[in-house]
Amino acid sequence: MAKMKVEEQEKAKTKARMSGSLMLIEALKAEKVEVIFGYPGGAVLPLYDELYKAGVFHVLTRHEQGAIHAAEGYARISGKPGVVIATSGPGATNIVTGLTDAMMDSLPLVVFTGQVATSVIGSDAFQEADVVGITMPITKHNYQVRDISELPRIIKEAFHIATTGRPGPVLIDIPKDITTAEGEFDYDQDVHLPGYQPTTQPNHWQIRRLVEAVSQSKRPVILAGAGILHANASNELRQYAEQQNIPVIHTLLGLGGFPADHPLFLGMAGMHGTYTANMALCECDLLINIGARFDDRVTGNLKYFAPKATVAHIDIDPAEIGKNVPTKIPIVSDAKAALQELIAQQGKPADTAAWLAQLDEWKRRFPLHYEPEAGTIKPQKLIEMIYEMTNGEAIVTTDVGQHQMWAAQYYKFNRPHRWVTSGGLGTMGFGLPAAIGAQLADRSATVVSIVGDGGFQMTFQELSVIQELRLPIKIVIVNNQALGMVRQWQELFYDKRYSHSLIPNQPDFVKLAEAYGMPGLRAKTEAEAAEVLKQAFAMDGPVLLDFHVRADENVYPMVAPGKGLHEMVGVKACEESSR
Amino acid sequence: MRRIITMTVNNRPGVLNRITGLFTKRHYNIESITVGHTEIEGISRMTFVVNVDDERTAEQIIKQLNKQIDVLKVNDITDQAIVARELALIKVAAPPAVRQEIYTLIEPFRASIVDVSKDSLVIQVTGEPEKVEALIELLRPYGIKEVARTGTTAFTRGAQKATTNQKTAFII
Questions:
Q1: Which chain B residues are Cβ-neighbours of A206 within 8 angstroms?
Q2: Where do the DSSP E strands lie in A443-510?
Q3: N or C, where is chain A less crowded by C-beta within 10 Å?
Q4: How many angstroms separate the first and last alpha carbons of chain A?
Q5: Does residue A575 carry a pLDDT above 80?
Q6: B27 touches chain A (CB under 8 A)
Q7: InterPro entries, per this entry (chain B) (predicted)?
Q8: Residue A119 — pLDDT band, cuts 50, 70, 90?
Q9: How many whole angstroms separate alpha carbon A268 and alpha carbon A254?
Q10: pLDDT tens, A40-66?
Q11: pLDDT confidence of residue B13
């Protein structure tokens, strides 16, 4: 009896009349949202008033871009949707980059933007922008609330859409008068979206075709993308690869889905992938893509991509299958469900002994390579030192460019959900704010934010947040006083005309850290770097590390734009004697 | 190649913008669009005629449209037995001397005169786009002042021929 009563009370509560702002707070509670990243402004004042009263954990970043990248970092590590609030007009337009980034990398976000009152929409009112129009192509879905009665349904749909199927950002634009209007709050209703029914279970006939193809293949390979991580399918991937003796290659975003120290792992594929991974893609007779989208940075010139292979593609988004690469075995499914089905089939494993021997030979002869140089800091060496210092257990966030590629190459991720990087969009300024969200998603983890001196200067205002929340993030600036990847391309393809890519005029990053109230340390040689890292990781709180690395170092191997994966440059054969 | 794609969508604000935006973003070339209500309240029907380079692009269009939350159903009906119609209004120069000639000319098209003025006529024609095209060409020598076309609207016939080569866009 007593239990009944409680349930009835609960139900009555969820049907209570309340303001739009309070509805939002109640909906966030119902969705078990732990943290909101945001920035107030005129159109969201009623909402922020309710946030104040409700005592919701809200992180005030120092720019809306910081808020949305932090939410992305949070989503990437926690697997839960990142929640963002921005005001109308400039607040909303400042999150455009983050929305696009989340769209490209399939990160679940629910973003609320304020809007001018419905009575003045369309009149070019103060801080008005057509946010729904602007964000239509860069969100999985978006809404403008036109009546208070729609608000609960829309919020519920937004969380559902953001987190199911192929995840992505969903935006809700809320006019100011809706936040103060009163209506009935009913959050128990079921989501009814006849136009949105993602397929999550594989087609059995296609699974059997794949099992058959594997049993007949001699040189199969798995290309695993971030779909593995979104589906929490790392264990299944490993189990399947081991059951069938199939080697595994990762995309940039997939790193950590398969243990880097596993004998079947070949490394990352693509423009700066390993020799073995890229050659395996060229030589394989069966390519099983699981949760990757055949991005151009992975495939190189499509004309030369996997020319000998039958292609199987497992993806939750049917539009990715056959988009770039003709696919013989299409499997629309959640990666975990498909892998479980494949494992259960216990198909005859491929006879891969000769293939694996060939791959091992390549791995041994053509490993990732750089010339050590003790008097300076080699950026690759720096990443290796960080890897050792953190036992390969840290969450690593990066910006975009050379340092990102070195981190991907030399930080060996053995666990999933440790790697936070901007892949599809390639957003500079992503790494530092993303680290805030990543740390909040996993408080006990060591978080290292590896950034370039260029990208860092795009969003370093978020140092304030790191200091304020005492987040023990280790910020590593790979400082080459240049926009390194741009400089590298200019060196290689533009006859060394370094057009606006060298930025020797820098602030003193150590003093900058101190200005924000956190320690800063600098190193210019390998020995200093070792010392500085030791100090930094012994500290409890945040610390900024400025490493002056070899400025003219390039990322290799490299597949030049327009070339096939087999046309790598910067591959060096390892001498037998030196092994 | 020319494809006729029909779809049903939720009649929500911005839905047309969503669809045309998708075409712009992915560089699909729209020849015509028609939109209107269906027999079900709150649901609209759209008919697109698009020009694509190959089957893969056609398949991509269908898949991308299907991903839109407000899109309920998408069909490429090009290769099916269909009824496709377009309406055109054609204002043609028509001094009294040639009027009778024009009347005779349009008759086999079952077109009709919907407006008459001192020196021009407005002709309304309905039919398959090719028929509309043919009539416009016939009238061109008389001096066409204005043409307004609705674009193609279409759906599949009640009975499909057994041999119809219906292309399955994708086997899920």
A1: 171
A2: 447-452, 474-479
A3: N
A4: 75
A5: no
A6: no
A7: Acetalactate_synth_ssu, Acetolactate_synth/TF_NikR_C, Acetolactate_synth_ssu_C, ACT-like_dom_sf, ACT_dom, AHAS_ACT, AHAS_small-like_ACT
A8: very high
A9: 9
A10: 999 999 999 999 999 899 999 999 999
A11: 87
Q: What is the mean pLDDT of chain A?
A: 95
Q: Which of A355, A334, A351, A362 is nearest to A277 (CA)?
A: A362
Instruction: Give domain limits for chain B.
Output: 2-76, 85-154
Tell me whether strands A543-548 and A474-479 are parallel, antiparallel or unpaired.
parallel
DSSP string of B19-73? HHHHHHHTT-EEEEEEEEE-SSTTEEEEEEEEE-SSHHHHHHHHHHHHHSTTEEE
d(CA A133, nearest CA chain B) in Å: 8
What pLDDT is recorded for position A576? 53
CATH number of B2-76: 3.30.70.260
A170, A61: one domain? yes
Residue among A133, A161, A322 minimizing CB distance to B59: A322
- For chain B, the first-to-last Cα distance in angstroms comes to 25
Contact A195 B172 (CB under 8 A): no
For the stretch A525-553, pLDDT in tens is 999 999 999 999 999 999 999 999 999 99
As annotated, the active-site residues of A are 64, 126-127, 176, 485
Chain A neighbors of B71, CB-CB under 8 A: 195
The mean pLDDT value for A400-410 works out to: 98
Round the CA-based radius of gyration of chain B to a whole number and report it. 19
Q: Does domain B85-154 have CATH number 3.30.70.1150?
A: yes
**Alpha-carbon gap: A103 to the closest alpha carbon of chain B (Å):** 13
Contact B67 A332 (CB under 8 A): no
- The C-alpha angle A380, A271, A361, rounded to 5 degrees, equals 75
Task: Looking at the structure, tell me whether residues A401 and A530 fall in a common domain.
Answer: yes
* Prediction ipTM score: 0.89
Q: By the 8 A CB rule, do A252 and A268 touch? A: yes
Mutate to test the interface with B, among A106, A196, A206 (most CBs of B within 10 A): A196
Are the folds of B2-76 and B85-154 the same?
Answer: yes
Number of domains in chain A: 3
State which amino acid sits at residue A73.
Answer: G
